[in-house]
Write a structure and sequence with these properties.
- By secondary structure, the protein is an alpha+beta fold.
- It is built from two helices and two strands.
- The protein has a two-stranded antiparallel ribbon.
């Protein structure tokens, strides 16, 4: 939370994010992750990004007032 320079209001989201990651990685003496034990398949981890990183949020056509409005807004990733 500190390295992403986000306010304390996002503490709950940071905790959820860490649990999400924790359940998808292999731990000490185990050869499988908790996700793999539960669902019997390997988790996809290619979509992992750093908490609080800059991202682009898509704006649907219905939310844009004019044809030339931006199709995306700059945002911060705070969870999946």
């Amino acid at each position: 939370l500190k390295s992403s320079n986000l306010p304390r209001e996002f503490y709950y989201d940071a905790m959820q994010y860490s649990v999400y990651l924790f359940n998808r990685i292999i731990h000490n003496n185990s050869s499988t992750s908790p996700f793999e034990k539960l669902f019997k398949k390997k988790p996809t981890i290619t979509h992992f990004r750093k908490f609080g990183c800059v991202c682009t949020v898509f704006v649907p056509k219905e939310k844009r007032q004019f044809d030339l409005d931006d199709r995306g807004k700059v945002g911060r990733l705070i969870g999946y």
